[in-house]
Amino acid sequence: MALVQKHIQLPAFARGFHIITDLVTQAVPELKDAEVGLLHVFIQHTSASLTINENADPTVRQDFESFINRTVKENEPYYLHDYEGPDDMPAHLKASLLGSSVSIPVTNGRLALGTWQGIYLGEHRNSGGSRRLVVTLQT
Amino acid sequence: MALVQKHIQLPAFARGFHIITDLVTQAVPELKDAEVGLLHVFIQHTSASLTINENADPTVRQDFESFINRTVKENEPYYLHDYEGPDDMPAHLKASLLGSSVSIPVTNGRLALGTWQGIYLGEHRNSGGSRRLVVTLQT
Amino acid sequence: MALVQKHIQLPAFARGFHIITDLVTQAVPELKDAEVGLLHVFIQHTSASLTINENADPTVRQDFESFINRTVKENEPYYLHDYEGPDDMPAHLKASLLGSSVSIPVTNGRLALGTWQGIYLGEHRNSGGSRRLVVTLQT
To answer: Is the pTM of this model over 0.95?
Structure first.
């Protein structure tokens, strides 16, 4: 078995959900030589998240943003951590509800995703800027 | 170290939460020879989920279904992605809140689950049909 | 590649969120010799959780507890699983929303966490007692 690790930087994305499957797989060209393996993708931030969901219809990503904003509201009177702006504490909560990493099997040189699955970046800040990922391939 | 991977197909389950620990471990008989390891279980769908929770009292699974249906409601007027039925967009959201994979340590030939832990399949569609899993054992 | 696994027992923590990064890394001194790797941390309980979030301002942890208590309420009339106390069924739900494990890349002998990231224990019972973790390092 072998272990390959890459630290990559994403372009800045607007608040919301974005498919980053290709940006991730481009970082590990070694993927195509792996008969079987696991790909681990980790985001080094506490106000953005990674999850796996529908890769086709963009309205799914819009509904994700609508749902998460209603479930984790801004300006809740009970928030104590409010000095980094109204989008900050909700961003922390969203990051933990959705998760900081995804782990995906690799089969025959490709991510063994289902037909409709892609990797989502959840950008939960209004101006999150460029986010750093650590991509680790085990083969 | 070695890496064993199996693609399996579950029987169709009704909407709700179901314990699939035995169905998963039966797919990797190599597990019993592993002194230490990690088992990764991945579901290749965006409207069903995998999580770990109580394996004994079935009312826990019923309460999971009640809770998740109240937290992620059907027919929200703001959903844009509604043409696959009222259970579809909620199923996508539930899948990301609960997760698409579980990763469990292996010790002395067995999953190192706590006494009360089992692997749950969350079937979030009314008629999800048979679901595909990819089970990867690292030892 | 090598695989090191430790079973550890945490001290009892009060209900709420607690940073346990140092307790985890102390269990695997082999970490400092790993050029690249992955660290998997698993909690063997269904009423406590592991997640990654802000390691600095303690008000973030307080807001996590406030948010999760409002999102997963005690004494919901629809709960069927209620004989272990009002904090029990909510604890199971919180555990699955936040997760039973975290997986973190290792780079140059250290966890490749972002500057502000730490490992949270979510203790969701009023008196959860000492919790058991399984820490698995792959290098």
So the answer is: yes
